[in-house]
Amino acid sequence: MELLERRRALIEERLVDVVDAVDPETLGEEVRHVTLSGGKRVRPMVTILACETVGGTAEDAVDFGVGIELVHNASLVVDDIIDRSELRRGTTSAWAEFGHGPAIIASDGLLGEAFALFSADPNATQVVAEAMVELGIGEATELSAKPANEEEYMTLARRKTGALFRAAAELGAIAADSDPFTVEAVGEYAERVGVAFQIRDDVLDAVADADDLGKPTGHDAALERPSVVQVTDLTPEEANERAQTEADRAIDALDRVDVVDREARGYLQELAEYVVERER
What we know:
This protein is mainly alpha-helical. The protein has a single domain, classed as Farnesyl Diphosphate Synthase. Helices cover 77% and strands 1% of the residues. The chain is built from 14 helices and 2 strands; from the N terminus they run H-H-H-H-E-E-H-H-H-H-H-H-H-H-H-H. It has a two-stranded antiparallel sheet with strand order 1-2. Helix 1 runs antiparallel to helix 2, helix 3 packs across helix 8 (150-175) and helix 13 (236-254) runs antiparallel to helix 14 (262-277). The radius of gyration is 18 Å and the shape is globular. It starts with a helix and ends with a helix. Residues 208-218 have low confidence and may be disordered.
């Protein structure tokens, strides 16, 4: 765990450096509010661990990891506007704090800073651009063409959640100068972890106790969001089984990779197991 904390500290330090350099100060304040108010930093950790697994270093991957975290945060700003959510990570959401216009500008600013970090490698830029296309299609689908069955739900989950997870891992492999086969394998691993995460998230929102979860429940139902328990015939138990299947397939994809750092690979496997078992 000490090594994980070292990686997390590296991410936080670089994230602060990037945010502190944002101009003008008004935009910097808004970006700082969004990015430094908390967060698990799961995606940048995936970037670093994927890089180390295939032979790179944390330092090789940290800029790409910070970049994908900025993209993720930019998407959350928009999510909160769509959902009219006034809270994010226990603090005021960007639109509630600054207004809709400044929040949208902050989201744009986050994307600009992210792509400045990706611009060092055309492959990195392409990977993230493709993920953002998928994310945009997923967001549009959720609003206007909601899934009506399990297959359509799984496609939505891959686009909305899996795509950025995939990009996070692929960026790590790219930072380690991996071959396309390795990039694809770690990408599949992370995409399936993202889908498992989304399924479990939907189940917890539907059945968990709010005090145990640490946040309000019933969010999906109140907003008429297409959660796995609302658009499919799956019971919560069956949905958890689907999440477990995705996690198992994620680990299978990881097994196709030539592992250099077994400790980093072990953390990636633990993540795949954790997203299915988590209670909050």
